[in-house]
Design brief:
This protein is α/β, with parallel strands linked by helices. The protein folds into 2 domains: about 5-200 and about 365-455, Zn peptidases (Aminopeptidase), CATH 3.40.630.10; about 200-255 and about 300-365, Alpha-Beta Plaits. The protein has helices at about 5-15, 15-25, 40-55, 125-140, 160-170, 215-220, 225-235, 260-270, 270-275, 290-295, 335-350, 375-385, 400-410, 435-455, and strands at about 60-65, 70-75, 85-90, 110, 115, 145-155, 180, 185, 195-200, 200-210, 215, 300-310, 315, 320-330, 355-365, 365-370, 390-395, 415, 420, 430-435. Strands 1, 2, 3, 6, 7, 9, 16, 17 and 18 form a 9-stranded mixed β-sheet that branches. A 4-stranded antiparallel β-sheet has the order 12-14-10-15. The longest helix is centred in the C-terminal third of the chain and has 20 residues, at about 435-455. The model has no long low-confidence stretch (mean pLDDT about 95).
Length: about 450
């Protein structure tokens, strides 16, 4: 029996243990955006460190982060073989509204072939496939076919501030020949996808202030400027009626999509109906002239993700109002320049009687995979072995700040091979993971490590 076959046999025998390990991990409410969960993030990091020691990794460290710890480990027992950086994140999105959940989001529940919990797909379930594969190799043959660096981030959902700083200062724990990230999706359980690019992101908050305090709507309504109405008008100014962004200069450096790329996306990407089905909507909206998938993956977008006022539903003219803005960027768009354009656009339209400011909260550039990379051969071969077909090469509309920063700082290919599905409800109530993807994902990681070691 070959080492790879022995690792696969071990992984198959340990499926129940892998699932139990994931269930325990999902019980930690690791919401990085909420300071009340700082202790939960630290406890989860400590649990992960123990897990990594148990499966045989070395140099296990829990490093202090700005909000949550970074957990790292390594295995460097194959001189002359490539070093692979495996990245995942253990923090999760908030769960509100909890009333929309059919279960307690941190008491995972299995229903048929699905496991429901916050973080089941994004990203605890996906990086668990890597941990199971690493354990299988080390348990079956006492060695990996590659040298390994593992990084588990507790701040991905808030832009990975600690790791972005680590990338900037060339942290040795991030030195590798190639990186592998499983935090993306498949077209179907038997159709793997290698992500060819990620959109960049610019997160901002627009803050508007008026009177010194909230004022009775009956006594002052119609006599003073209303920050809530100002925010609504400014938000409405971001798009024309057709859905095109109205910020002057916004599209200036957007690289046009070539005809052969559009044809490939038409043939291999999801149709409008398939794209919109998980959202339970029928009609696609947005920039004219593009499919829903093109708009959500290869075109830039500006979204208002939240509106809020100090009035909180009371019958007042609120003293303060705000909007959270999320701008998705494509290659050619530089986050700092887009921030300037957004600031100029909003400032020029600020109504009289109110004051406003734009706070940039996070940003990262877009990422594009070099499709000529030799590492793609390893991914294609691993997918043929496990799924019976090569992965479809498609862009993603999501953003992973660490990936963008890492690729910009050093010449490294990042292989984005995920095991989620588009209807996993990530960032939404009733998030779930299709459990066969966990186990086939483990098999794919076992084979991918072997292929990268031979590459």
């Amino acid at each position: 029996m070959t080492d790879a076959a022995a690792a696969l046999s071990y992984a198959l025998s340990r499926r129940a243990a892998t699932l139990e390990r994931l269930l325990r991990l999902l019980e930690y409410p690791t919401i990085s955006v909420d300071p009340r969960h700082a202790r939960d993030l630290k406890a989860c990091a400590a649990s992960l460190a123990r897990m990594l020691c148990h499966i045989g990794l070395r140099d296990v460290q829990v490093s202090r982060g700005r909000i949550a710890p970074v957990v790292t480990a390594s295995w460097r027992g194959r001189p002359g073989r490539p070093t692979v950086l495996v990245y995942g994140h253990y923090d999760v999105q908030p769960v509100e509204p909890k009333s929309a959940w059919a279960i307690d989001p941190f008491r995972p529940m299995r229903r048929g072939r699905y496991l429901y919990a916050r973080g089941a797909s994004d990203d605890k379930g996906q990086f668990m496939a890597h941990l199971a594969a690493i354990e299988a190799w080390l348990a079956a043959s006492r060695k990996l076919p590659i040298n390994l660096r593992l990084v588990l981030d507790g701040e991905e959902e808030i832009g990975s501030p600690t790791l972005l700083g680590a990338v900037a200062r060339q942290w040795p724990a991030l030195a590798a020949d190639v990186a592998v990230v499983s935090d993306t999706w498949m077209l179907a359980p038997d159709v793997p996808v290698l992500i060819s690019g990620l959109r960049g992101v610019l997160g901002a908050r627009l803050e508007i202030s008026g009177a010194a305090r909230d004022l009775h709507a009956g006594a002052f309504g119609g006599a003073i400027a209303n920050p809530a109405e100002a925010v609504a008008g400014l938000a409405a100014s971001l798009h024309d009626k057709a859905g095109r962004v109205l910020i002057p200069g916004f599209y200036d450096h957007v690289r046009p999509m070539k005809g052969n790329e559009r044809l490939r996306l038409f043939r291999t990407g999801p149709s409008d109906s398939a794209m919109l089905a998980p959202a339970s909507v029928v009609d696609s909206q947005g920039e004219p002239g593009f499919s829903a998938f093109e708009r959500a993956s290869r075109r830039p977008a500006v979204m208002v993700t939240d509106l809020h006022t100090s009035g909180e539903g009371r019958t007042v003219v609120p003293a303060r109002a705000g909007a959270d803005l999320n701008v998705r960027l494509v290659p050619g768009q530089e986050p700092g320049k887009i921030a300037q354009l957004l600031h100029r656009h909003l400032g020029s339209r600020m109504p009289p009687g109110v004051c406003g400011r734009l706070v940039i909260r996070s940003h990262c550039p877009a990422y594009r995979l070099d499709e000529r990379s030799p590492a793609l051969r390893a991914v294609r071969s691993a997918c043929r072995t496990v799924f019976g077909r090569e992965p479809v090469l498609l862009p993603s509309g999501g953003s992973i700040p660490f990936v963008s920063a890492l690729a910009a700082a050093r010449p490294i290919d990042v292989l984005l091979l995920g095991f989620g599905l588009r209807d996993d409800a990530t960032h939404a109530p009733n998030e779930r993971m299709y459990l066969p993807n966990l186990f086939r994902g483990t098999e794919a990681c076992i084979e991918l490590y072997r292929q990268l070691g031979d590459n």
